[in-house]
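Hey, I'm writing a tutorial for new members on how sequence and structure tokens pair up, and I'd like a real worked example in the thread rather than a made-up one. If someone can provide the structure for the chain below, I'll link this post from the tutorial.
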Amino acid sequence: MNIIEIKNLRLQSEIGFSAHELDRLQEVVISLRIQTDGRRAGETDDPIDAFNYKTVNKAIIRLVKESRFRLLEKLAEEIAKTVVVRFEARQVQVEIHKPGALRHADSVGISIERRAEDYMRHVAFLSLGSNISPEMNIADAIMLLRRWTIILASSSVYRTAPQGDTRQDAFINMAVKLHTLRDPLEFKTHVIDRIESRLRRTRDPRNKNAPRTIDIDISLWNDEAFEYGDRPWAVPDPDILRFAHVAIPLADIAGDYRHPTQGKTLSEIAAGFSAAGVQRIGIDFNAWEK
């Protein structure tokens, strides 16, 4: 067992819920104790075998910079989840202090400890689309997904022809792969529905193919096939086999993944579609500056 320590990482964060804390940056001081298996690096003296704490540091900086938190508890939990789930540490202790938060005290802080077994994670693949201010709305959707999940991979971005109702603007479509602790129905109601509500997604009962600010669907979940919810929704999403704009982005991020009921890889499924009407465009939402 090795312990890697990152001490007193000082960052500016939007954190708090009191009136005087809203819409302003405050200092937080973050320290980590990360438990890893460092035996191989100790034997080989090869950096490739060592735990990459610089990458961890960058991920935490990005998390704090791009998110807003009401509570130190939430920030600590998201940092712990990032270290354990994304970077596969055995265990992490996260300590966060907020200087000047309490009168007559240097700081207020919290310390939490999490292990790998604390995060029973699912791998989900989502399909995203928009044709109303699509660049802005997909960027906002990605930002919110980062707040409530850990994004593992994202596809290229495609401009695609509308389906069903062709009298509307072209869509932008993409796919993401992520980790979540929620079950599918909870993910649908607590993540997807909240994002679609925040981005003012409206549904026209007379036209299911109407323009939309954002559309997010669970396309794949682990390697399972099932139905969930009252509708019910199906996983794998049947649209994977029906539409190029769903299959092609998924194949970008998981080409070797075998469809749970068809047995074909996503690359094989995507190759069966005509690329007409599906144009890859050079947008990287990971680097999107709001």
